Amino acid sequence: MSGQPSISLQYARIPPCYHAHLDDTYIRRSGGIAVNPTEMLKLTNTLTGSQEVFAPLDGSTVRMYTCGPTVHNHAHIGNLRTYVFEDILRRHLHSKGWALKHVMNITDIDDKIINRAIEAGQDIKTYAEPYTRAFFEDCGKLRIERPDIITPATDYIPEMIDLVQRLLDAGYAYPEGDSIYYRISRFPNYGRLSRLDRRELKIGARIDADEYEKEEPSDFVLWKAPKNEKEPHWQAPFGAGRPGWHIECSAMAMKQLGETLDIHCGGVDNIFPHHENEIAQSEAVTGKPFVRFWVHGEHLLVEGEKMAKSKGNFYTLRDLLEREYDPLAIRYLLVSVPYRKQLNFTWDGLVAAQRSLERIKEFLFRLNTARLGPGSNPQLDAEAAAAFENALDDDLNTAQALAVVFDLIRKCNTALSDAVVKEDDRKRIFRFFQNVDERLAIVPPMEAIVQGDEQIESLIANRNEARRKRDFASADLIRQQLLDRGVVIEDTREGTKWRRK
Ligand code: AMP
Ligand code: ZN
Question: For the whole model, what pTM was predicted?
Answer without folding.
Answer: 0.84
